[in-house]
Amino acid sequence: MTKARILFVDDEPRILDGLRRSLRGKRSEWDMVFATSGDQALELLAESPYDVVVSDMRMPGMDGAELLTHVSERHPEVARMVLSGHTEQEAAIRVAVAGHRFLTKPSDAGSVVAVIEQLTHRTSAAHGIAVRRIAGAVRSLPTLPAHVDELTAVLGAADVELADAASAASRDIGFTAKLLQLSNSVFFGARARVTSAESAINALGLPTVQALVGAGHLVCSSERWGTAAERDLDVVWRHAMAAARLAGLMATPANRPYAQAAALLQDIGWLVCLADRRCADGPTHREVGVELLHLWGLPYPIVAAVAERDLRQRPPSSGLGVAAAVRAAHLLIQQTDARDPGLGTHDDELAEFLAHPQLTATPTDWRRAAEEASAQAGQSFVR
Fold first, then answer.
1. Nearest CA among 204, 116, 108 for reference residue 162
2. Lowest-pLDDT choice from 48-52, 216-220, 243-247
3. Alpha helix (H) ranges present in the chain?
4. What is the pLDDT of residues 188-202, one digit of tens each?
5. Is the Cα dihedral 310, 311, 312, 313 positive or negative?
6. Model confidence, pTM
7. Domain 4-121's class?
8. Residue ranges of the domains in the chain?
């Protein structure tokens, strides 16, 4: 097997020596190269391919944020990881846009190894490098213009309440995904798995979220892709919002946060492909979306459910599970005004879901619940 190639960047030689010693057990699996500056790292990346670059944040000359921004532009197929002891808000915000994963110093070797091993794994067997290159380049996702205005207005207010901030954030798919990426990292203060916009804002803190929006890096209007793209984005957005509401009703309490998040993010790959025409060359938007969520380190049940959204589910009678709850919600929403017209209805599979013990155990009329979720999604759309 070809060894994974990992590039470590830190201006302190003693830090690099410590990494070299603590990771010597991985020498049979990784080719590890060590650079003492951003300029040297870029020279090495230009000379030969790497799978992962691990950078400190504060370095003289070119700092970690600038280095990783260059890597994202020139070598998007390289996963970008921050390993730093400096978490000042301004620098953290800059690196949050450019990085994929984040760890604080000191971190034990096991944590470093675990994250790097995850990043060397590519989720697409058919289009691995192409999908990684597309997903790896993503720093923000297109947002409907009305949502840009709402996020900016709500989160820009000095006296904004957490509930109002969470409500505004949860109405934007890409912004919610970015919040989940950051809030699931100990680098940004996470202590437990985060699965909703509200819990993400609570974990990050309102000042950090406001600073992220104010910096203008995480919210980009879809206007530059034209009115047709905005119309398509409207369809994807409404379907996802309605499915997320319904999945929350259908899933068990333990699975509910994961099912809601997965339903909201089910077509996040489509948002990437809206901005990246290379998707037309082979990779599907499903592959791209799963790879992006994997790179961003979202909880596995969310990533797996997004990956399986288009697959027929045959859940055991004991419970639907996250993926089946998302699939069932999707199929029910396909019967409503919030349907995606480009997809089928799969009536026979939906009938099997509606006969499942988990759904028949309550007197809920699930078709009516789907219609209500569709209507609520339409009402919450701000133009």
1. 204
2. 216-220
3. 13-22, 38-47, 64-74, 89-98, 109-120, 128-136, 145-156, 162-170, 173-183, 197-204, 206-214, 226-250, 256-264, 268-275, 285-295, 300-307, 321-333, 347-354, 357-360, 366-379
4. 665 667 788 888 888
5. negative
6. 0.91
7. alpha beta
8. 4-121, 142-220, 225-379
